[in-house]
Design brief:
By secondary structure, the protein is an alpha/beta fold. The protein contains 14 helices and 18 strands. The protein has helices spanning 22-31, 81-87, 91-97, 104-117, 178-181, 194-202, 214-225, 258-266, 269-278, 280-283, 288-300, 390-393, 406-409, 419-431; strands at residues 15-18, 39-43, 121-123, 125-133, 138-146, 152-160, 162-165, 169-171, 188-190, 207-210, 234-237, 310-313, 316-324, 327-334, 339-345, 347-350, 354-356, 398-401. The protein has a 5-stranded parallel sheet, with helices on one face. Helix 1 (22-31) packs across helix 14 (419-431) and helix 7 packs parallel to helix 11. The longest helix is centred in the first third of the chain and has 14 residues, at 104-117. The protein is globular and about 75 Å long. Mean pLDDT is 91; it is low at 1-8 and 456-482.
């Protein structure tokens, strides 16, 4: 829904969601049938969109279609992907297509269908800040209604008992490459904007793709398919020692289960910080099908003799980059050979990934109440709640986070396959009951010598009878972690 919210009222909402990516859209879909829960969601963009610059024809999401917004928590929900197909009279074509992994464009269309039909979603609302009102014992969310041009039209303040932050990620540009982005008028784009600039990029004499993950592979393959045989003039470089396939074994995938999430959260902060960088191939590798398609395309171009004019070099770090007249110079270092060279190119696509959007701006007024870890990151408990002062949590109010908890919950934080489970878990915690029954065990692997109990921590009642939505007891406030 894109209509503005009702006029400001003095009665606090039960829940205000900030941001409408897949994470909070999942929460909104699962919250919709809970008539006792008064929830509203704000998003600054004019409509739902999911990485529109990367909806390359043929590019697929890397999880099965069952990892939609709701199915893994409630397969009977009206907001499942299968019900979306039914509403479009496409169930039989999908059945005969026998596809477990759908295209990104189809997943985006499904999410837009949900967003167009759910109540309580308010686009063109930019949330400016949140604060705690100790007198009323509620949070106050200040937000700005934007007009069609993105300019401020009206200011609003919404009181709420609870907040869920789902502001997602933003494109990441490494420091050595930032001078290229900061210089206007040169053909350097982040992969997240690739499709918007593809026509211009294809006119360049020589194109370099920087980044050896999935988006880099998809962009390189798309450019390769659109360049003439023998005159491809493409470079693809990345830091990883190989263009490595993503870990996709059945037991490897169990790192994206609630069982592993609970195990990871129970580890100490230093162990979690050491572990995360070693798990890059779980989420930063390349789908094996994409790697095969690249090799097939390159091989096809050798059928009549000769090799394609395409250079693929892993293990390369960009030391510095600058614009020289009509070309771009990338100063490279090979991490294994310890050798350096210069690559001159006409256009660059930065497939350098995304990073979690920092929460600090939104949490400025909550900072005195917020407990942080040794690296100054917000502490987040096992129920996805910020670790706030008891002065707030004992009133029954809290702030939840979605897809901002990788440092506390592990590699599965941004994974679509855990979105419905996390949303359902948040709603169970919020309502103080098992609104959505969740599995007690999800993996064959037992993580750790002393396994964590498979059931979640019981939702105990606080001595002060903390009340959640509709007057239900909430679980105890989070305690500090080492």
């Amino acid at each position: 829904m894109t209509t503005p919210p009702p006029p400001d009222h003095d009665t606090p909402r039960d829940l205000v969601g900030i941001g409408l990516g897949p994470a909070n859209l999942s929460l909104a879909a699962l919250a919709q049938p809970l008539t006792e829960l008064d929830a509203v969601f704000y998003e600054q963009h004019p409509a739902f969109h999911w990485h529109p610059g990367l909806l390359i024809d043929g590019a697929r999401i890397q999880v099965p279609y069952l990892a939609d917004l709701v199915t893994l928590a409630d397969p009977t929900s009206p907001w499942t992907f299968l019900n979306y197909l039914k509403s479009r009279d496409r169930l039989y074509p999908f059945y005969f297509a026998e596809r477990l992994h759908i295209q990104r464009a189809e997943y985006d269309a499904y999410c837009r269908w949900v967003a167009d039909h759910l109540p309580g979603l308010h686009f063109r609302h930019q949330v400016d800040t949140i604060r705690w009102n100790p007198r009323r014992e509620v949070f106050e969310v200040d937000h700005t209604l934007l007009d069609a041009d993105g300019q401020a039209e009206a200011l609003h303040r919404t009181p709420t008992k609870n907040i869920v932050l789902g502001i997602g990620t933003e494109p990441h540009v490494p420091d050595p490459l930032r001078p290229l982005v900061d210089t206007p008028g040169i053909p350097v784009v982040h992969a997240s904007d690739y499709l918007h600039h593809r026509t211009t990029l294809l006119t360049a004499g020589h194109i370099t793709v920087v980044g050896s993950g999935q988006s880099g592979a998809e962009v390189f393959l798309d450019l390769l398919r659109h360049r003439p045989t023998g005159r491809e003039r493409l470079h693809w470089i990345g830091r990883t020692p190989a263009f490595a396939p993503m870990e996709y074994s059945k037991l490897g995938l169990e790192h994206f289960t609630p069982d592993y999430t609970r195990y990871f959260h129970a580890l100490t902060e230093p162990v979690r910080d050491r572990l995360l960088p070693t798990q890059w191939q779980l989420h930063k590798g390349i789908d094996a099908t994409t790697l095969a398609a690249i090799h097939d395309e390159l091989y096809h171009r050798t059928l009549h003799g000769g090799w394609p004019d395409a250079v693929l070099t892993p293990g390369v770090h960009v030391r510095t980059a600058h614009h020289t007249g009509t070309t771009i110079d990338l100063h490279l270092e090979h991490l294994q050979q310890n050798t350096r060279s210069r690559l001159t190119t006409d256009a660059v696509v930065l497939a350098t990934g995304h990073r979690e959007r920092p929460l600090d701006t939104l949490l400025t007024h909550l900072d005195p109440h917020l407990h942080r870890d040794n690296s100054r990151r917000p502490r987040i408990d096992e129920h996805f709640r910020l670790d706030l002062d008891p002065a707030i949590t004992t009133t029954g109010s809290t702030v939840y986070v979605q897809n901002a908890e990788r440092h506390t919950h592990g590699v599965g934080a941004p994974d679509l396959g855990l979105a419905a489970w996390r949303s359902a878990h948040i709603l169970n915690t919020l309502t103080g009951k098992e609104t959505y029954p969740l599995p007690t065990r999800t993996a064959f692997t037992t993580f750790g010598l002393h396994p964590q109990p498979h059931p979640l921590t019981p939702l105990a009642e606080h001595p002060r009878q903390r009340q959640g939505a509709a007057g239900r007891p909430l679980p105890p406030p989070p305690t500090a972690h080492p």
